Amino acid sequence: MRLLFIHSKPFSFHVTEKxxxxxxxxxxGEVLERGGAExxxxxxxxxxxxxxxxxxxxxxxxxxxxxxxFETVGAKTVVLYPYSHLSNNLCSPHAAIxxxxxxxxxxxxxxxxxxxxxxxxxxxxHGAGHPVSELSRVIEIEPSEIARAxxxxxEHPLCALNQRFRExxxxxGLDEVVNPAIVEDTHVYKQYGPEAPLIxxxxxxxxxxxxxxxxxxxxxxxxxLEIVPDFNRWERLQSLMRDYKExxxxxxxxxxxFALQLMITGxxxxxxxxxxxxxxxxxxxxxxxxxxxxxxxxNWFPVLGNVRGRLPLPVRLFSVGSRFRRExxxxxxxxxxxxxxxxxxxxxxxIMDDGKKLTRQILNKLGFDKTKFVKKKVxxxxxxxxxxxxxxxxxxxxxxxxxxxxxxxxxxxxRYGIDLPVFNIGFGVERIAMMLSGGDDIRALVYPLLYxxxxxxxxxxxxxxxxxxxxxxxxxxxxxxxxxxxAAANSDAPGPAQVELYSGPLGGKPGRITIFxxxxxxxxxxxxxxxxxxxxxxxxxxxxxxxxxxxDKFRPIYDEGVNxxxxxxxxxAAGFAARAEAHALAGxxxxxxxxxxxxxxxxxxxxxxxxxxxxxxxxLHKTIKVGxxxxxxxxxxxx
Length: 639
Description:
Elements: E1 2-18, E2 34-37, E3 40-46, H1 55-73, E4 77-82, H2 93-106, E5 112-114, E6 119-127, E7 134-138, H3 143-150, H4 157-171, E8 175-176, E9 182-184, H5 185-192, H6 196-200, E10 204-209, H7 218-227, H8 234-245, H9 251-261, H10 266-275, E11 285-292, H11 297-307, E12 315-324, E13 337-346, H12 352-365, E14 372-375, E15 389-395, E16 398-407, H13 410-414, E17 422-428, H14 429-437, H15 442-446, H16 448-451, H17 458-464, E18 466-467, H18 474-489, E19 497-506, E20 509-517, E21 532-536, E22 539-543, H19 555-560, E23 562-567, H20 568-585, E24 592-599, E25 607-608, H21 611-619, E26 624-625, E27 628-638
Parallel strand pairs: 3-4, 4-5, 8-12, 22-26
Antiparallel strand pairs: 1-2, 1-3, 1-6, 1-7, 9-11, 10-11, 12-13, 13-17, 14-15, 15-16, 16-17, 18-25, 19-20, 20-27, 21-22, 21-23, 24-27
């Protein structure tokens, strides 16, 4: 963002014509059709393209700069005036208005006049003419801050492939269906016939706890009175137990209702459940005939039977969802829960070539141009035995099964009133995702946080780094960057020397922060204070921004690595400002002073490296080389 400050006595404006980007002007709204002030700091402002990446940070920093200028010139009113002519790299109008609104909110404590965005305006001003009546500022956000503000999260490769399947199916004219994951075992019998018991051996049956029929004996009453001596709501207790048994009260609400209706505390209720009614702990699951689906086919038969005659032909449907199989083990190729991308087509005159053609179309769109079809020697009972076919893709020199296709058996279809050919293809999404990612273990692909160590590339690692400490107050946090800039501008001032870096609220009290050097003839800052943090091949370095200051040995770090934009002096200023803020908030009134000589580890320059980053760096035996000579001090004082 670019800012131009003019101290004008007086200033006035009015709109003349709107553009297509004009924001609305409403009676009583925050922007005005016309306005003016006798003693105004006029802030001409233009939001730039990079500002879109961190709009809140830009607005906060701009507000801090405006506040400093306002106090410096002694104006009575701030006029915020959008002025696109300050930049040739403007952000989008929509983003500019959003940033303006954040800036207006940050300036709300001032006597504020907001000129509207997207309007041609006429204005009259009279510059005050003193040495600081015309100022300009450029608000730039460091790359590391932009990365943290705008970084897009990582998508899971399995979920990404699910989405690709969805897009491919939709593009091929298939309609999406959400199929229930809970299926009664009667459908397995209808679809598989005599084979059903063997199929059901691999499914997960669902069970529920049998609600206990709990009586209230004399011994239980005595135990309850030991916990709640003045208890007298026995009828209400018996009624609660009946309501629980008859499912009048949902199980997840029972504990809360137990305490509320019996007028006891949660701690008393918990003790009663444990000591008076141990039956609750002894409840046993009671199986039902409901199962978690092991094949998407379990859903397709009832769905197609229900829509036969109701939907026009052809009926072309797909569903992407989980299936659950009670495998003997979880290993590199087997999981209890996996994902099926399943398609059914119901139409007159369908033949096997139609199904294979559709299968090839789908796999071609995924990048597989060679598909192998192998008819199964022993067909599943729900498939026509002449069509039950496995689909293979060659991967790392081997044929890997990634799907199964065929036509549903006419006898199984007839049990659902289906009198047309039905083609089905089901793809194993995990196996295809593993092939696309080049992996060998489905477990590591699907559950990387359980089966794989977490790794970061240099850009990701750089995005994890930041100040270890920072002020709570946003304006003070924004001022820390300006403090670093001012300190850097005076880095060569010979000692002993002192420069005021900040004056303003500090922990809720008026205060100031200064930087000083105590050595006669020495520069204010030793050279390491201006070092910046780089990441290269998993290593973290503190180096000068200018590569020419070092030998060729370090050239790859500059050429290939990532500059986080974190400079030692800025980090140190942020950390000291945070401690000064905490000092004042704790009620301490004396000055706070700290000195830095030679930094040997990241914390001494206020560089925060999260545990995840440390774990990664240490596991791969990488290095952290952040330090060097500093030799300066900072002091915070309060009025």
